[in-house]
Specification:
By secondary structure, the chain is mainly α. The protein contains ten helices and two strands; from the N terminus they run βααααβαααααα. Helix 2 packs across helix 3 and helix 7 (about 95-105) packs across helix 9.
């Protein structure tokens, strides 16, 4: 007897394949969109208890009543992991310099914000989801940087902050100075 829970994706996929069902067919039988089934099988999303039960019924599986949550790292483990990736905020700042400028914050303050977001991301990291910890941290920190820039600018993300020089040139001016444009 196969038992599935919210943290176990392969048994659901295995049972679906053994029964000769496609993700679309399973979704139709359980009343769930097929792309949601894909996300469950890849470990990107965790099915809520109601959906887990309907999937188990369709597949003829048993559901664990009390699935174990993924273990969270202790504070010392979290700090050790963050120390391993201390260079990541600097990399993100260099690669997204215009966003850093758009925040209106000092670079060191942005770095500290990214490190704090990194600590939060380590707590939510689930190795069974497929992404490496570095990728998880990178995405979380870049998204946080975008949120900081959006929040700082009342005019939207395209606002050019003070101190950034922008040169605007017309097509006519380019042609007058010897540049040829295709198309």
């Amino acid at each position: 007897m196969i038992i599935i829970n919210q943290n176990c994706y392969q048994p659901m996929r295995q049972a679906r394949i053994e029964q000769g069902l496609t993700q679309r067919e399973l979704g139709e039988m359980a009343g769930i969109p097929y792309y949601t089934i894909q996300a469950y099988e890849r470990g990107r999303n965790k099915p809520p208890a109601r959906r887990l039960r309907s999937l188990a019924e369709v597949l003829g599986l048993e559901v664990e009543d009390y699935p174990l949550p993924p273990e969270r790292p202790t504070a010392s483990e979290r700090n050790e992991l963050l120390e391993k990736y201390m260079n990541l905020p600097g990399y993100i700042i260099r690669e997204n310099w215009t966003l850093v400028l758009a925040t209106g914050m000092e670079v060191e303050d942005v770095r500290q914000e990214l490190l704090l977001r990194g600590l939060q991301a380590i707590e939510t990291y689930d190795p069974s989801a497929g992404a490496s910890l570095r990728t998880h941290l990178n995405i979380a920190m870049q998204y946080h940087l975008m949120k900081l820039a959006r929040k700082a600018s009342a005019r939207g993300m395209t606002h050019v902050p003070r101190g950034v020089r922008v040169t605007i040139c017309s097509v006519e001016a380019l042609c007058e100075n010897g540049f040829e444009l295709e198309g």
